[in-house]
Every structure is written in C-alpha cells, then in structure tokens.
Amino acid sequence: MDIKMSELKKGNDNFEFIKEQVIVKKHKKLKKWLFPFLMTVTMAILFGLISAVTFCIAEPRLYELLHRAKEEKTPVDLQDKDTEDIDDNDLIRPGLEDTNTVKPTPGLDKPAVQGEDPDINEEVKDPEPVIVERSIDADIDDYKSIYDDIKSIAYEGNKSVVKVSSIINTSDWFGNPVEREVETSGLVIANNNTELLILVSLDRVKDASAIDIIFSDTIAAKAELLDFESELNMAVIAVKLVDIPELYLKSIVPAKLGESYTIIVGSPIIAIGSPNGHPESVEVGIITSKGSHISLTDNRLDLFNTNIQSNDNSDGFIINLNGEVIGIITRNLKEDLNKDLSTALGISKIRSIITKLANETPRIYFGVRTDDMTEAAKAEHGVENGIYVETVQANSPAFAGGLKTGDIIIEVDEALVTNTNRFYSIISEYNPGDKVKVKIKRTSNTNEKDLVLDVIVQEKANK
Hints:
By secondary structure, this protein is of the alpha+beta class. It contains eight helices and 20 strands.
C-alpha cells in the first residue's frame, strides 16, 4: 500500500511538473512570434509611406505622359484668310478685268493748243495691233520636258496622298456574311502633333469594321473615323503618328490648299489620288467649265468640270500647276449633263467645312435650302438683299421657328444676308441652342409682309 501511495505521489509530481512546462512554452512561443509580427507591421507602414511619397512625386509626370496626346493636339486651321469672305458678286471674271477701266482717248491726253476747240469731234482711230511672229523650234525632247515637269508636280502632290483600305462587312447572295475590301485614296490635310488627319470619301469608310493606311505590302497603320459630312460624302479619318514608321512619316507632307474662286476655263490641271478608280493613279486635263452650283442644307457650293473621264470608283483631288489643291472630285453631287466627266467641288467654299471636320467642331443646323436672288427678283419683291427659301426641312429649327417655302431671308440678328454663302457664314458663328432673330419677307400671301422670327439653331446630326 505504501508503495502504491508513493508511486501515486510520484505520478502527481510528474503531472504538476508537466503543467508548469506547458505554460512556459506558450509564453516563449508568444515572444517568438511577437517580434516578427511587429517588424512586419513596421515594414508595411514604411512601405506605405514610401509608396505614397513616390506616387505623389510620379503621378503628375505619369498623367502628363499618358495624356500627352490629348493635351498637345493642336487645332487645325485650313482657312484662307485672304479669300474666306469673298462674295461671288465681287469676283472679277477672267477676261473682263479691264472692262470698267477708263482708257485715255488718243489725242485727249495732251494739253489743248491755244485757239483749238477741244470739243470738236474728231475721228479717233485705234492703233493698229502689232503682230510679233517668232519661230520656235521644238522637238520630241521639248515634249518630253513638258511631261517631266508635269510628272514632277504630280510627284510632289502625291506626297500628300495615301492609300486607304477598309473592310466592310456585308453578305453574299445566300445571306452568308462576307468581308469586302474597298481601296481608295485619301488626302493628308493636317498633322495635329499626335495624328495625321486624312480627307476621304465617306462611302468608302463609313460602315467599315477596320480602316488601314497602306504604306507597303507589309506595312500598314490603323485609322479611325473622326468626323464626316453626309451631304458632301466627305469624311476625315485619323491615324496616330506613333503607329506610322518614321521612314514613311518623313515622306508625308500635308496638302497645300489653293483657292478656286479665280480658276479659268481651259487651264491645265492634274488629278491625283484615284481619278480613274485605281489608287495612286494620275490624270492630266483641263478645266472645261465652271460657274455651276449645288444647293445643300443651309449652304451652296461651287462646282467645276474637267475633261477627265470618271467612273463609279473615281476618287481624287484636282491640283493646279503650282501643286495646290483647288478641287475635290465628287461622285454624288454631279449635274446630269455629263456624268462621265469628273466634277469637282471648288476648294474655297469647303475649307471651313473641312476645318470643322478636322477639329470635330459641331456644324450648325438651320434647316433650309435656298437660292440666291437675281437683281430682277429683288426689285420685284422690293428688297435690296436676301435669299429665297426653296425648301424648309421638316422638324428643323427653321420649321419650328415658322419659316415657310417662298420666304425671303433678309437679315440674321441684323447681319445682312446677301447670298447663301453669306447666310452659312453667319449662322456658323453660333453655338447649338442659340436663339437668332431672322428678318424675312413673306411672299406666299397676297399681301407681302415683313416678319421677325425666332429660330433656335441646333447641331447638325450626321446620318
């Protein structure tokens, strides 16, 4: 019994010893993990502080780098300051420059001799014309030299022309989806420091799933549709400068835009782009007629014709012998007289439109089609200036403001309206939502009367 009790006591002693050892081990374990934990927290705080300081220092520079393209994009200005306000009525027609010039009458530019009556009518004879004949020996080398000069002009002009390829999703006869590739030519109109802006025909790119600028068989750059004008079938696409290989970028030069007010029938011209339907083709011809116009919504543009053959695939640009673009070949704004010849929009009156497309500036919508009035028509209605409203478009600002077909628009906010182009220039200065006071003469009633209507102009929506 004594042995058993001693053994029991010994067992109890061991038990107590084990309990004490367990408590000691937990305490040491806590100390073992406490130091690393505190070090981790300290390092995390230090890391957070360092990260915050680094971010505060780097963030402005990172923002500048990521948004550099947006901030450094420069506005495009294609306006010709010397001709943007020219009125058709102020233009001197070629060949009539000296019509109103007073020429001295022979014999009357000398002082009268005493005793002679200066009022005596004497027969005045025009001087006989002096004909100078000069024989010029020309041979085949001179002929080749002329064409070498033309090729040189075309070569320089083509530095502003690029090949544009677009993929349009369509379907075949059985309704199966297919991809159709369309190729055309585009005119480089500006470099805004981040993108090249290229003028193209809208129907070549509008429904495209992808647009590429082709530099060679293996090199191309992606482009995107920036803005467009449906009535003119005109669009501006943009390609990022960073996507263009430097070798090709150096060879591209924005086009020189000339003016089309003073073009002369019979003048030689060069068509570049795709004038015969083939990209990178060139045609040489002359201006065969001018003076035609096309009425559009709120505007009227000039057309001129050439002797260059046209087809459904023709796109291109007309340059003069100075290498300046004076016209944009159009397929949808032709007259019905001869659709097989190239017709071009005169560049002077579409400069402002192209500028707005390049800058993505909203175009103002009034909603009328008008015609310029002859002097006889003005006298008939007792007005000194104005334009005749041929059509008021449904649901347009003009329709909502109360304008009707047959009205004569005389003033817009006290600015005289002398012709349709002047009217377009006036309303283009407003912003969407602006209210303008339009002075009109209503001719649709038996008794004509002057009215002042309020019209709230809107942004022109592309369709």
